[in-house]
Amino acid sequence: MMKFLERGGAWVAGQFLLFAALIALSLRYPGTGPVACRGAGVGALIAAASIAVAGAKVLGRNLTPFPKPADHAKLVQHGIYARIRHPLYTAVILAGFGWALLWLSWPAAVVAVALIPFLHAKSCREEGLLHRKFPDYREYETRTNRFIPNLY
User: Fold this and answer.
1) Domain map of the chain by residue range?
2) Which of 1, 6, 83, 133 is 20 to 30 A away from residue 39, measured at CA?
3) Cα 138 to chain center, whole Å?
4) Could you write out the DSSP letters of every residue in 10-25?
């Protein structure tokens, strides 16, 4: 349990709980509305899956749910990581909004919004650890945005 917490397990648990709440709320409080909104939700889920696959593929053995990088990790700056620093977090946020739209659930949308500051804080924690592990991280950080290319 201690190793789980040392690697940032509380962040992982929080992220899991937020996403579980999003799913539960959408199933408990589905809404009604235009079919186009559901279509936008499907589109967001497809985009999220594409971003997640691209990020996971490039990370390879570096992939971990924890903010603390694995001992064997290398700094990845190519593929989707040449455009954004945290594509997997981007995918989680996009999936949250997509799921809320698919179910037209306002309570789920509120949780999807809550994912943004949570994952921003998690990424800040992670970046502090990455600065310590990789001397080149600061330069990489100046070239890339956190979640959205050329924006944020």
Assistant:
1) 34-64+73-152
2) 83
3) 21
4) HHHHHHHHHHHHHHHH
